[in-house]
Amino acid sequence: MTELDLTLDGRPISARPGQSVGAALTDAGVVAWRTTRRNGRPRGLFCGIGVCFDCLVTVDGVPNQRACLVTARDGMKLETGDE
Amino acid sequence: MTAPDLVVIGAGALGAATAYYATRSGLSVEVLERGAIVSGTTSACEGNLLVSDKEAGPELDLSLYSNQLWNGELAEHGDLWEFEAKGGLVVASSPAGATGLTELATRQRAAGIVVEDVPVDRVPEYEPHLTRDISGAAFYPQDCQVQPMLMAAHLLRMAREAGAVVRTGVTVTGFLRDGDRVTGVRTDQGDVPAGHVVNAAGTWAGQIAELAGVEVPVLPRRGFILITEPLPKTVFHKVYAGEYVASTQSSDESLQTSTVIEGSASGTILIGSSRERVGFDRTVSLPALREIAGKALRLYPSLAGVNVMRSYFGFRPYCPDHLPVIGLDPRAPGLAHAAGHEGAGIGLSVGSAKLLIQQITGAEPELDLAPFAPERFALREAA
Amino acid sequence: MSETYDVAVVGAGPAGLAAAVTAAEQGLRVVLVDAGRQPGGQFWRHPDESVPSTDESRGQHQWRRFTGLRDRLRALESRGSVTRIAGHQVWFLEPVAGAGAYALHLTPTVASEKTPGVPALVTAVRLVLCPGGYDRQLPIPGWDLPGVMAAGGVQALLKGHRSLAGKRAVVAGTGPFLFPVAAGLAEAGAKVVAVCEAGSPAGWARTPGGAVAVPSKALEAFEYAAVFARHRIPLRTRTVITRISGADRVESVRLGRLDSGGRLTGLARADLEVDLVATGWGFTPSMELVTALGAATRVDVDQSLVAVVDAWQRTDVDRVWVAGEATGVGGALLAVAEGELAGFAVGRDAGRPVPDGGTRRLQRVIRRGRAFARAMHRAHPIPAGWRDWLEPETTLCRCEEVTVGEVCAARDTLGATDARTVKLLARPGMGWCQGRVCGFAAAALAVPPGRDLTAADLAPMSRRTLAAPISLADLAGDDHG
């Protein structure tokens, strides 16, 4: 099966077709990609099904996308960030 | 238990401020609230302390009086209720609107308001994300903001700490009378005698007045507000369209919207406003939400992709002449009112309350309350 | 505007799938709106169907029920009897004045995944709401560390993406859902160091209406027992996580013992080292669409706010039915039965002949399923002592980072007497998720300890004027075009 190539802040991340961005990051061992507004705490996946909005990530320049719901695509640029 | 000097009906902004100033004057106070504290319009508004949206006249005088309190004796508590003297930027989107704005500013300056004319090319220094497609702007440094629920809750807390009793879930069902005189209230949980009763029931003040046999024409005017996702600071002042001033004074029945937009301490952007006379209709009106969103985007096109997380609505208490009702009611001695402030109740709450307590305790109010007299409507009809 | 459908079904999980195919097979024109890209909901979440796979059913239960429903759905879709709008959420639901119909305003679940040709608005005469639910959460000190996940999220990664969220896991909370999550983790190669069940459910399966009455449940229990034995997974009952520790991610958990009344009696001597905590305390039904229409609600045995429905799944709002978890958390098979019955009910409402025997059988299945669910909930209550291990600094609202101490101060110092006022004064539930995660705990903390939660307590944390976020541009746009 062809792997998809994504980047997180420029660092290569691979994903299987059909996987979510959140799943690809999980497979890459990344557990946090955002810091909170008030206390600067790290956050990643929590509910995993689109309810909690903890896993927000910037995808191809569009901020605040839920990583657990966005399907990974080849060439996708993910960026960590502050809320 | 001895009867309190004062029973205050309603634990919103007006009731809280009244209880606060009453305890400061040494009065014993009992606040009776039908629901929970701050559960009415206080929890469904924006927390505006505006001078900019008011024409010269008694409401502006009251606004300036309140402004002194917010910035003076209450300033030490400002952090508790997120007080922010952020200033207001009023923008006009047409040459005619710009002329209107200039004329309004002239009248307001004469009444003591600080207004800075902002040349159109300097607007980005105030609001970098605002559309450049505007015809005029004015900056009002005296416009401020509080978090209204925290404000009211802390005033109630300080009143409680000074001995006031706040009872929630208690519904006033009538008044105790001695002849014409009001000597307390009847509630669903027993009678509460009192020296004076203050009707601070907000949009429901007319119904309370009716229980006392007097007419106070406070009616609901529904308004919606949109809340966006939290963002890095994007809107730096209170920004509103020039027609907002006209809409607050309008008596039109149908849906009216005019843009008021500002950032909040939590990073969200609050976007208003709408005005509709639909009674206490609690249906969420999509046309109102759409119109608010559309007009906001005309001022801030760059917010197009920003998500709205929620909306809320409240019922502003308005009187036919758009002035609040503040003062002792000669038709029912012992009864006073502090209600009907429409969209300005948060800002005017402290001034209204302080003046009312001055009147109740027999002192000369620092500002003439005659324009706000509860009996003015009946007198006008008779004339 | 396009056609008005006979019925709109919201949600394509077990209940919604069953409702949609049943209604369509009676000749009704059905639109099926689902937030997911492919049918199945959370229970039958599975890998992307467009990617060839030989093990689609791995980790699934009742999978043939699903493929049966999916086959029927595909046939109905190809005949044009069902229009399926996938990957979209209803952000606003309202009756159309004077038209005897409902308007469902839609937005893509993922903004960047707009499907061409999908309308922003669909209308239907009847509504079947099958919104499902998600793990209920209680705050635990440290639960905001990365590596702490909802049990359902861990399961979704496994079933939907074949991703393993950690290597050394503890699964904790209460309810039978902890078992498949632990089993799934172990089968996928994780070391499950403990399953901590706050209740002491031994024997509940034998109570009247319990698992014995629902043979498939007993069978599942045997399967889990085998998996647990094979992977040497220790099951610790009356055990909770009282603290989660780590610098920037989970490193360890502390366990506590509960007495039979659910109060904390002691702490384990040593912490468990883990890199994944999967936690859940039953489920919270998604109630925003139900409450948006003003349908009557009640508090169920598990303290969830749920819709009140009659023996035909009908609410007290004209032409609105609800099926699945939103009528009471009870699992997939009950949801399928309720969905099917709702499908017949809308058919009956539209004047279609309804098979008497079939619907009576469904009503029997539903009664039995409800009795089973009640027994299950009673065996897996929220432990009475869940506040005992909270600290004032413990995060309650993850979005707004509101602490337990701040919520208690709103109650004790500022005079808040209910959940709505606590929310207004301290902001729990005001952030991105709008109280979906912390709503239950915030409502519970707002009321005096010991008082049972009422619908009035839960409703303010369940009602959302906008059922999903919508961009300002889309909100401003007229979707009637």
UniProtKB/TrEMBL annotation, chain A:
Keywords: Oxidoreductase
Name the UniProt record assigns to this protein: Proline dehydrogenase
Entries under InterPro entries matching the protein: 2Fe-2S-bd_N (IPR042204), 2Fe-2S_ferredoxin-like_sf (IPR036010)
From TrEMBL, chain B:
Keywords from the UniProt entry: Oxidoreductase
Domain of life of the organism encoding this protein: Bacteria
Positions of the FAD dependent oxidoreductase domain: 5-358
Gene3D superfamilies, alphabetized: D-Amino Acid Oxidase, subunit A, domain 2 (3.30.9.10), FAD/NAD(P)-binding domain (3.50.50.60)
Signal peptide annotation: none
Short name of one Pfam family: DAO
Protein name, per record: FAD-dependent oxidoreductase
Organism: Actinoplanes couchii
UniProtKB/TrEMBL annotation, chain C:
UniProt domain FAD/NAD(P)-binding: residue ranges: 5-337
Coiled coil: none
Keywords tagged on the record: Oxidoreductase
Cited InterPro entries: BFD-like_2Fe2S-bd_dom_sf, FAD/NAD-bd_sf, FAD/NAD-binding_dom, Metab_Enz_Cyan_OpOx_G3PDH, Opine_Oxase_asu/HCN_bsu
One Pfam family matching this protein: Pyr_redox_2
Keyword Nucleus on entry: no
Keyword hit for Secreted: no
Name of the protein in question: FAD/NAD(P)-binding oxidoreductase
